[in-house]
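Would you mind writing out the residues of a protein together with its fold in token form for me to study?
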Amino acid sequence: MRLSARVDYALRAAVSLAGYGDRWVSAEQIADDQDIPRKFLESILLQLRRGGIAASKRGPEGGHRLARGGDEISLADVIRAVDGPLVGVRGERPEQVPYSGTARALTDVWIALRVNERDILESVKLADVAADRLPATVTKLLEDPDAWVIRGA
């Protein structure tokens, strides 16, 4: 799985907002907190607002905050808001990509991959990350020493 810089920054910005709770926070503060380029962050915050993840308010008492509680917003919600569906094959949903002959089973592999991604990314909420308390299902995966081994080039 590859996460774009946009997705990485969006997740970091959303987790930062979760850390501030109900307080309005400036884009500048988020950019400073997470070392995100300000112009890039502004377009990400716009996508998060359009995706129902964040809210914004103008004025001296304004800024940005989550549109609902950080315990209600999953990492998957943020990824979908800025990048679309979790697993895509050439920009399409896996079940819509036709394979034939000996490659026919690839569709099933991509769908199984999507199920596993959903299990993790939908179970982890922004508040979990902000509080550094991941769900047990995720921490259990991290106990496997093989999880930390990089394979391939």
Q: What stands out?
A: Residues 93 and 105 are 15 Å apart (CA to CA). The radius of gyration is 18 Å. The helical segments are 5-20, 27-34, 38-50, 75-83, 106-123, 126-130, 136-142.
